Amino acid sequence: MKGRDAIENSTDFVSGAVSMANSAASIGGTSGTTRQVLGVVGSVGDAIKPFVPLIATVTIVISECIKIYEDAQYNKKICNSLMDRVETADWAIRTLKRRKQENESKFRDSEYYKAFLRFVDVMKKIRSFIKDVSQIQGFKKYVKATAIKDKFHHLIKEFEAVMSDLSFTMAIANDEQRRLDQESLNEDIAQMNKFLKEIQGGIIEQNDTINTVLQEVIIMKNKVDQLKDQRRPDLPISETLKATTIEPKDIMDPLVGKKTDCRGKKEPFIYKKSYKAMEVACIPRAIPEDDSPQANKIQAQLAILGKLRDSPNILKFYGLSHLDNQMVMVVEWAELGSLREVYNTYDIAWPSKVQIALDICRGITFLHTCSILHHDIRCANIMMTLRLEPKITGFEYARLTTSATTSMTELTDVVHWLAPEKLKLAKDQPYNTKCEIFSFGMLLWELAFEKIPYENWNMERIKEWVLSGKRERLVFGRDKPEIEELQQEYKQIIVAAWQDDSQIRASLQFLFMELNKLAQKYYDPRSNSPALKPDKTIDLDGTLYKNDPVSVSDQGGEDLPEFEDDFSLDSIPEIPTLDDGISAHKKKETTKPWDIFCEHTNLGSTKAKYWKGYYLWEGYAGQKDRKQASTLFKEAADDGLADAQLRYAFSLVGNQGSKFDRKVFIEYLTKAAENQNSTAQFNLGDLYLNGKLGVPQNVELGKKYLRLAALTNQPKAIEILQKLGMNIYNDNKLNKI
Q1: 578-723 — its CATH code?
Q2: The Protein kinase domain covers which part of the protein (predicted)?
Q3: pLDDT band at 400, cuts 50/70/90?
């Protein structure tokens, strides 16, 4: 596997780990499968039995860490430092399994077993942290940069301590590694903060928090993914998830008509209209209007599309209406048509090309932050306003909620922009962010040279060319010195985006920051120089010069003896899992869960601290100590557990012996809300909506949090929104369809 060769990530390896867990009960018997997986016999098998499910769990966690790392778009250096530890853990586990006989005494040691439980917990924490920092939403959970650094150093400290307790060899616990770790932390955090400051585009709000609409879209996506062949009865507010309906009477003809108000060479035509004093396009669509599962799903996907209008670089979808006895989608009007139509009509000045590319990158970032992949990034799917503002469009319904593999029919249309991994394994390779970045790189080329990549080539020729590591020509025509300098910098961005090895392909963050540098350096919105020039006036590709197409390198991308049958073994006591304790709690038991929660708290489990705190708070199992409970809630809260953040906040209210701190209360309630705890979202929304606890009233912010809570069926939030006459799926009042 490229990038992380030391870690085996094959299907056989992971399934083998699962097989180990499933076979735990039969360890020491005569099962052929058991002997094959573990390679142990007799008493050694009995000794390792308690460790089998733990080893299997760690193996799967390691595999998940690899997948998260490979898909990471942000803070790659921080993730890399943690993956160094994951590799070390992987090697240690392999060595432990290979040398089972030599390690038999450890397998009998109860303290070693407890240390291994801590090891499992630490590996899960590392997995969660990598997942958080590799995504914008997860990164913003940590309010300050110091919180990320503290969490990182705490994880490393925990990891090194438990590795030492297990006598696992570590080649990375040294001063040089710590220096590299600190450099990675500082560089990634500085770059990420700069990126978040510049990205704008509806992602970061004025109060430096993630736009709640992004969370709403993710929740709505999950709901659509769960829709089966019947209407879901558990969708809140008596309505299924639907697009906004626009009354036909609200759609007017333009005050002054023009020939360009009608688009298309044949029916159905697209018409320019006016809606709420905005210029809109009415696009005929054959959308089923019955109550079928297909109709409900399309309606839900269109409702999601409506939410995306918070991004200034995505074509706004306002809703559905009826005109001339046909269903139409009402969308933002883009006067100049598609970007492809623009470059076929004009030559676009180079500084304007850079700004257009930057804004498209903003729009793609917004989509990816919503966990939405476009699947068809090209100039034909970018609409342009009179001010040359790009607006991403061309969404297929199914693409809003799934990463469905492209069909062969669709391949014919998109093959010019398609990533090599999709060309190689079209059906088996899931479309991911790396594929989208490659397509964006091809769009950058298309924008630069104002023509379709590999124009007039058939699919097989394109496939053979791209899979051999070759790309389109990157040769520019003569221009002013500063423009030629711009072109060379732009060229490097393209090359970074279309790398053959997806693991060394540039991240969207990198592409955005590089384009942002170019725009700040070369684009002046106050310039009197025309952005659009007559067609064929710019020497785009220097056809007088012959260069070979740019070729991008594919590079960075013992049998054990039998024991006597009468061997005597004093087995160590197995500690029930934390899930066992939670299951016992649900069965109304108290003593058993309490003992399990205490045991796992002593092992450092975040979730166990929360549960022990809960028992101490409520007085279960004859134990009651709300001060200690609050302390445990805070420890778990600071580890990022949403439920603990909520309970710690409320443990500050009316807790005898402690003074209520409103600032801390709101801080932890907000953390829980941002961590998608619906109860926290409701309480925070109620607090801002009504100005409780002396907090300045902020109705709009209150509504945002209430809507997030209602989207996950929080009953009190639904009740308040119903009283306000609000539809939780959009910003309009309730409307009946």
Answers
A1: 1.25.40.10
A2: 245-523
A3: low
